[in-house]
Amino acid sequence: MRLIGHLAEEKAARTFADYLYVQKIESQLDFEPPEGWGIWIHDEDKLEQAARLLTEFRTNPVDRKYRAEAKSAAGLRAEAEKGEASHRKKLLDRRYLLRPLRAYGFGPLTYGLIVVSVVVCLLSRLGNDPRPIMGLFITDFTDAAAPGPNLPEVMRGQVWRLITPIFIHFGLLHIFFNMLWLRDLGSMIEARQSWKMLALLVVVIAACSNLAQFFFSGPVFGGMSGVVYGLLGYIWIRGKFDPGSGLFLHPSTVTMMIIWFFACFTPIVPHVANAAHAVGLVMGIAWGYLSSLRYH
To answer: Residue 62 burial (CB < 10 Å; 0-12/13-18/19+)?
Structure first.
């Protein structure tokens, strides 16, 4: 789904959306102050056609042809609803008219990641008893010998250990803030892109950030924050260079997260997985930029 532009007036936006529907171009309206009503096109193959029609509409929005053809949109939608249950959500469903960051609802994958994290946190008594979850650490650090750089369990096939430290948290504040950010960032990616895209981001960023933290400080670490910083970087840069992606972070949100990122390197905030944060953020920024190049 891609953004092609905005119209200031709701009536004009609705008329144009109906006109697009008659032209067999599925669209969706989002109210996005201060620009007005954003027009989103479902089929990326029809972006150029829709953009051209929007340019023509702006030159003469009161042209009779728009009102005349838009009148038939309701009838066409009624016929489509009879044949396809997937079209039951109407173009101007109010649930999609105003969609701030916290109104995405839980994406299914985001919800699953949060549930697993909470369960693991409870099993480990907020991280105070690692024995029940030892198989989730990147390597077993209870052996008499100090863990080396080779990750023997991973080399024997326990590859999940590269990912599963993201589910380990130490304390209520640790898991609360990580899950709060995961809910918003993960759900945004699922809503605007797909759960598969979120899964790919989580797996790759988790593996790389966990490896970085292991080689930097050893095996006793955990948390979703490396992934959270990766998602933050991805959404920030992808939205900046590809506004049509629908991904967006308010500048104040980015500023707050960056300040916290650097604060974690000071003694004020001890025992933080800074290597995971840094690698996650850099990967997210790079991923967001590279994925936006195809739309330049």
So the answer is: exposed
Residue of 225, 252, 291, 296 marked catalytic: 225
The owner of tokens 């946190």 is 121
Among 27, 124, 169, 277, which one carries the catalytic annotation? 277
Distance spanning both ends of the chain, measured CA to CA: 16
For the chain, what is the radius of gyration of the CA atoms?
Answer: 23
Cα angle vertex 242, ends 177, 27, to 5°? 95
Mean predicted confidence (pLDDT) in 35-47:
88
In this structure, are residues 59 and 12 in contact, taking their beta carbons and an 8 Å threshold?
no
Nearest to 239 by CA among 283, 281, 187, 295: 295
Q: How far is CA 140 from the centre of its chain?
A: 32
217 tagged catalytic: no
90-99, 149-158, 190-199: range with lowest mean pLDDT:
90-99
Instruction: Kindly state the percentage of the chain with pLDDT values over 90.
Output: 48
Helix, strand or coil for residue 285? Answer: helix
The tokens for 208 are 């790389």
- Is 42 catalytic? The answer is no
